[in-house]
Amino acid sequence: MLNGSGVKIFAGTSHPELAEIIARRLGLPLAKAEVTKSGIGETNVRIAQSVREDDVYIINTGCAEVNTALMELCIMIHACKIASAKRITAVLPLFPYARQDKKDKSRAPITAKLVANMLQKSGCDHVITMDLHASQIQGFFDVPLYAEPSAILYIRTHFNLNDVVIVSPDAGGAKRATSIADRLGVDFALFHKERKKANEVSRMVLVGQVKDKIAILVDDMADTCGTLCLAAQHLAEANVAKVYAIVTHGILSGNALTAVEESILEKLIVTNTLPQRENQAKCSKIEVIDIGAVLAEVIRRSHYGESVSKLFHEVPY
């Protein structure tokens, strides 16, 4: 809970449900802001109450119309800045353009860095985000955040740890998976994958012992779900008992829901960094972990100047 004096929580239009959960957890009402569009699609923002010398948190996420949500966030930050807010923190559960994190070919942009620059130039002092796609993006911000506490709590409460092996679907996610495996005291395995082109995997090789285990695939995001479903199939061929997947960001684009429903995955567990109600209605295998409590706790600690990193070494919320 927060003492409401000097703190304002604003919500953008991308994920109002999560903003309500966070505000309720903190014991604060959402501050009033009007966000509208002009006839030619320009975003208009009016902060409807004073933020002078306040600690302001603006909650928006990279979903639906990503460019609109990003511009809306930048305008809200700027509006609070010129209204004399003391400190402004952007709460971005899914950081937009996180997958465009490096110059991988000639004349390619590093769009994740551009987004970081936009937020900074808008007047943002800190950023709170969930499970960045690539570790180098952490250098852009003061407060990177991982969904690890929520994933660990789910695994501890739903599985017998003696039967579990944590599996990374690619080498890039090995650090994330080994961190979870180490904290749970369970075995770890990973896939080496080769791609013909983006979002199309040509070959996967499993490294590690998984026979007769409950395999839990962990990743930062599930987009088309091609990698997860292919990894699940390979795990089944390696004689695991069951296969689950836990991901932070359930983007679930294209035919992802159909692919998951028809796969051998028992469940795809995602967090609510993105709205998931419609996806759950369309796919019976989708289960949602609420990360509102974790984000609320990070906001509370940030406001009172307490350590955020200690959150990952305590009992998960």
From TrEMBL:
One cellular component term from this protein's GO annotations in UniProt: cytoplasm
Pathway involvement of the protein, from the record: Metabolic intermediate biosynthesis; 5-phospho-alpha-D-ribose 1-diphosphate biosynthesis; 5-phospho-alpha-D-ribose 1-diphosphate from D-ribose 5-phosphate (route I): step 1/1
UniProt keyword annotations, A-Z: ATP-binding, Cytoplasm, Kinase, Magnesium, Metal-binding, Nucleotide biosynthesis, Nucleotide-binding, Transferase
Enzyme class: transferase
Catalytic reactions on record: D-ribose 5-phosphate + ATP = 5-phospho-alpha-D-ribose 1-diphosphate + AMP + H(+)
This enzyme's EC code(s): 2.7.6.1
Occurrences of domain Ribose-phosphate pyrophosphokinase N-terminal (ranges): 7-123
Gene3D superfamilies in UniProt: 3.40.50.2020
GO biological-process terms attached to the record: 5-phosphoribose 1-diphosphate biosynthetic process; purine nucleotide biosynthetic process
CC cofactor: Mg(2+)
Molecular function, one GO term: magnesium ion binding
Classification via NCBIfam families: PRK01259.1, ribP_PPkin
Sequence similarity: Belongs to the ribose-phosphate pyrophosphokinase family.
The protein's name in its UniProt record: ribose-phosphate diphosphokinase
Organism: Serpula lacrymans var. lacrymans (strain S7.3) (Dry rot fungus)
